[in-house]
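Provenance and format

Records in this collection were gathered into a single text stream. Each protein contributes a sequence line and a token line. The two records reproduced below are adjacent in the stream.
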Amino acid sequence: MISEILRYTLQIALISFMLGSLVDVGLKLDVKDAWTALHDRKFVLLSILSAFVFGPLLAIVIARVFELPGGYALGLLLLGLAPCAPFLPLLADIAKGDPAYSAAFILIAALGTIIVMPIALPFVAPELHAEMVSIARPLLLLVLAPFGIGIAVRRVSKKWADRSDPVIRKLVSFNVLILLSVAFAQNWDRILDTIGTLAIAAQCIFYSGLALFSYAVSYRLPHDRRCIVTLGSCTRNVGAALAPLSAVPDADPQSTTMCILAAFITLMIGFATARILDRLRPKPGLQINAG
């Protein structure tokens, strides 16, 4: 009885978190600023390279090197195909990133995930037994739809969007606490089982490797753009990673556990990376604008 209540509560909390966080991002997103940032070809190319080329490749390599069991390996691959946590704007504020480029990266990540994941998964993870349409459907409903609703509301009334944003943000923060608490309560035994499989270490190395790679390859970008590429690439959209699993009735529980672990780990590494990037920020007058 209790386990059933926890399971349904977790599902509701997860869906509410995804919908609320992405609506919140859409409410704050200035399409004109994001569109201007998307004209920065160097930024766009580096974002795509870090998020959708190096990310999945690194996930595959780490899964094989660590010899992760099939379910954990699949979970890591799903995370590799779902870059950019919805709380990127908050991390960008800490690292002194450009809000327009933060919005642009979120657009790139959202659209890229919806396009790349349904195409890539049937080939790299045939054991999931899911077709492109069944993978794309939850992504469209849980990623693109709420994101688009937030943008539409801001387009209709910027004033109303600004007023709604603090309320939704508080609800999302409360939802995160419920989500993490229930996820741990329901899966604590499975989470403990991961200790002997190096799944936690694999995720930490995965996120850290993404941060180092994206920071290194974007060295010609100014700090306020470079930190966006780094933070967007080294954080994961856990909801988007879990979405394909919801479309498969016989999904391996280990894959779900791997994604639940990511909810904790991506928060810790994301905020730690943002703090480090803020410290690495060039002093006023010393930064060279690489345009």
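Adjacent record:
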Amino acid sequence: MNNKPSINYLLLIIIPMVFSCYEPVKEDNKKNLPASSPALHVKNKKYMLIDTKASFLTWQGASLNGLINTQTGYIYISNGELMVENGQVKSGTIEVGMNTIEDKNHGSDNKLVNHLKDPDFFDTKRFPFSTIVITGVALVNGEDRKVTGDLTIKGITHAVTFPAKIKVKNGMVTANAQLVIDRTKWDVRYKSAKFYNNLANQTMSDSIKFYIHIIAKKQTPDLR
């Protein structure tokens, strides 16, 4: 396992979009997923199940010390469904297992990753899941969409809007999205200039990016 950069140079920004450059989800990682919440079971025949082995998020973090230094890593989807109607995604739920956080080398048990799981950041013992509930998907152009929804992290929910490219073809949904948030709205305050004075070059950006890659597959024969 490689040595990790100081946590002072991390800014959690849970993000990509050159998803073809990322490695597939490791089977070992799936063992780290806690039991998911039961709220995602839906009987609607137009729902498509998210493939948790092929879907994932990347995160990017940055510190602000005159220059922006970034770190990246992975986090995995534990459960989810998308509702498709007339060949278009209309709504859905994405559930993320917060205890699956990894660094860029897929390290999952080191100083950096364990700090991200602590109360300073995501407090994953108390809040093992984060969710995105998609409430609307508006056509922009071609495969480009504007997605609206509710993001819950650490038990705190705020509305979000973000761009995505979504394709529905042959009973499968492929979606790539970029979500940027102000982490302090979800009580992730570690080394934020909004709450701490005299941080100097240890100040961390309040922005968090999530690059989301989703594959969802047909569940019922009558889905178009």
